[in-house]
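Handout, tutorial session.
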Amino acid sequence: MPLIAAPKNYDEALTKIETLQHSNLPDAIELLKTLESEFDSMSRLQQGRFLVFKGAASIYAGQYQTAIDTLNQSEALLKDSEMLFSAYSYEATAYIVLRHFNDAFNVMGKSLGLIERIEDVNLKRASYLRLASLYATMGITEEVATYAAKALALASPNDVKDVCGAKLYLSVHQLELKSYSQAFDEFKFTRSFCESSGYPLIAYIALKGMGESKLRSDEPLPAVSYLLDALKGYESFNFQLEINSTHALLSEAYLMLQDFTKAELHAQYVMNLVDDSSNTELKHGASRVLAKIYAQKQQFEQAYEYSRKEQYYNQLLFDESKMKTLAYQAAKFNADEQAREINLLNKERELYIAQQMVKEREYTNMLMFITILVGGLFFLGILLIVGSLQKRKFMRMARIDALTGVLNRGAGQELGENLFVQVAARKGDFCVILFDLDHFKLINDSYGHGTGDWALKKVVESLKPHIRNGDVFARIGGEEFAIFLPYANEAKGMEVAEQCRVRIEAIDTHLSGHKFVITASFGVSGMRSEDLSLDPLLHRADMALYAVKSSGRNNVFCYSDILKSDKQATSLGNRLVSMR
């Protein structure tokens, strides 16, 4: 493609770049390259606009840190310009893709502050749309609908670009709500409207939305058609982020059609992407697709490997979700706190003025009153701080087992139940491990309760460093413990239980002043489709634990293994009844 000649009027050229970014990105990039040599001849405001468009082009190309660096340079140049909102919006987008959520919310907070000062309806409408885009990227669907509706309310029929954007985000909102039929209809309208209005990039995004709506409605055949057309459109814009996402969706669609060759082709494309945070969700889906493909081909070793990758990326997504939620809550808290402080300062100022007017002749008495008031507030503040610290201390003591330092029964089961609900909502796996120390009463009777306490603490000390951060370790009885493993199946539970058993058996007891052997029996149970709470898993794990006790102790039994036949189940039931 020949280079586009740079016009002498830089404002005209920059406006042309802004238009081309929504209709012909390659031409916009060529014009940016042409203008780069003229950068030093531009005014500060023109240089700022140029850097904003250059940062946006870097985002489309998937160069997010480069985009952030470029947009940071533009902020100083656009300090007193309403174009600064665009710089903040693109910068927040790059931070979100890189999973720097705290930075993203900080920049979005600056954007919200600018909106309050914007009087121009067109700029305010564009600002609402950018905020809708940012919240869509964050997955905060309520805010997406709120700001998209605000933008649409400010748009006239002639504002086709902003109508396109608002309709697109309202369609995305329906998709997130799983209203797939309504989402498809709204995406279809958006695509037709934006394509005929000269905004092909938004039309391609809507086309991809149509494909995803059909895919989620279990209609893979039309989904493939829409997604392939969208992919061609994205490739013409070199919109790398959306290209990657479309490949991931195509792999799912072809898997549903049992076209394993094409499904594997698209999934491998995703797996070959650079392993960074912007591709985590895509690789999670692609690894799940590949695991299913290789399982169908009976290539179980490869299926197992991709299943492990799926679990790995699932954990990353779970951690990312927690980070995102914490960042959003922190941002809301800071915004509320700032508003409260401003309101408090205004009230204090009004009170001060009123007091000065009423008691102008009693300055000395007022000074004494203020001194007493400040002293009282200071003393009250100290009392509140001390009370808060004591409350935290007592709350922690109420949740922690005093002897071993792990969660007690109530706190452990409550946290385990909460994790179970989260995992069940995401249709993940959940595993429960119950274990207790063998012949613990004999240790207490032979060597004293002090040695028994030492044994309990030593068991926790040997296991705690090897428990994952997301797992729950609790003492639920005298010598009985539980480990809750979210996003782990029974096989993983058996592996963890066996590792724990070996570590307990390896404990050197001579430091207690006595020589004896500590062993433990383990019962493992995984989540089933009919489980609605944690209680059935605990019950099955308890049955497996008693089965270990009845068969010689110091072993690991899985509930599903000990009930392989009706005969074994009957035998186990009889043994448990006799033991109890």
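The second record follows below. Compare its token runs with those of the first.
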Amino acid sequence: MHGRGRVRRVRLSARAALATAACALLTLAAAGPAAAGPQRAASDSQLTVRLLAIADLHGTLSPPDGDRSAITEPNGAVVPAGGAAYLSAYVDQLRDSAAHSLLYSVGDNWGVSPLESAMFRDEPTVEFLNHLGISASGVGNHELDRGIDEFRRLQSGGCHPSDGCRFGATFDGAQFPLLSSNMLMPNGIPATMPFSVDYVDGIPVGVVSALAADTGDALGPGVRDQVRFADELATIDRTAGLLDFLGVHAIVLLLHQGDDYAAGDAPSCGERAGPGHTIATEASPLVDIVFTADNADRYDCTYADPDGHPRTVMNPAALGRGISVADVTLDRATRDIVRDQTTSFNQTVTHDISPDVEAAALTDRAVSMTADRSGQAVGVAASPITRTPSSTGESALGNLVADAQLAAGHALGAQVALTNPGGLRADLAPSSDGIVDYGAAHRVQPFDNPLDVVTLTGAQLTRVLEQQFQPRDDGQLLERILAPSRSLTYSIDRSAPVGGRISHVEIDGVEIDPNAPYRVAINRFLARGGDGFTEFTYATDHSNTETDLAAFVDYLAKASPIRPPERDRITLID
């Protein structure tokens, strides 16, 4: 497949990235106004550019299904959305109605992908993004799921050293830059290009990208030791300042950082808060527009920057279901964006448009190549089993997965299992005749994490449960309720001080002894302290069994017909 409107760029090693980019821009900036082309009349003093952004695609080539599919439009209509062929068609339509356009992605292009992408190490998704003609992409945490070496392979091309090329005879890699201004190698060398620049009719438009400084907490075991993340606000400001110094005054920020709102719970623009919102509003006034990612809901807001000037901040719908669109005006004299002339909207990728033929062919090929594995029946369920939380934070699906992990760890002495809700990526959706196939199970547990069984004392287990309430830098409290297996019950008092909210912890109906050892089944992400659960890192007697996905598939087969577990393992103290 081919990329449309693609800018030719030279791929650089991480060691040379920053120096080469700066030298190139110094040379270009020295050219000064000549880069803008021939003299123009005063009436031709401005230029309109359409900026497009997608985010959190997660390798979703087919239209997402079940709870991940629908979007509620401003008029209240609920419509199915997404799919690579429809996304590509809408990008074409939006480009065709503008004289100049640039398309960005704000990261998490792949990772926790459906089987049609994951089975081929996300090579089909990279091919699709090349076809879209991405101008630049930010790096999200999920691009790093398989480590920095695999990230670089998908970036630069080449077959996997052990698995080869799974989707075709060769693999050329991404034909667009993957950016992060604050992702560093352990020795401090930039891990990627910190910025890129495109020229629109002679006017440079720079793009800066950053992830949250605590992104390491969301990375899997081993990966978080391969890279580190500098303070995002300081790095954004420094990089924007460098671009401005080099004569690039129109600056776009791709910010892969969310606000921790659940889907459907996000407030209006005037009530937004959280870490992503803080960075988007406090970033350097040199930044003209911000596209964000890692948020559950789309939005289109305007906030004052630190100098009091209006700045558009947008987030598109995830999984290829939406495109953020900002039409900006460039002043030819200043080569900057005229902020108060910006117009913006979020376009839903509905299915009432003719799909793009090439993108449809790529998707069909990937789906066909995975059909046998994806369609394999693994269980039976009378109805969908969802991630919808109760007032305690429990979900029926989370409890089901924890029970599966307890069963998988039984041979290694597991008495309890706990799993993180972020590891459950979709509701369990059986077919109309109640069949649960492998593809449905994979959509629930796409990480395929190894399962560990570890030993914690009763006191350590209580401290793990206390870490479900995590203070943030902005003074708010982040609540991450782990799904407990049926063997574990306890109480939460949300009115108590943090660190003293957990009581009545029982295993199989018997209150735990703070000094006694207990065997706990957890995925390796948690075992290495992921999601802020650092107490797990003090566990002893590590043993490992099958992966979380394999455990789930085995449990579905043995326990069918599956019914949603009750959400009664945690009790709230009023």
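Points raised in discussion: The CA atoms of residues 111 and 142 lie 5 Å apart.
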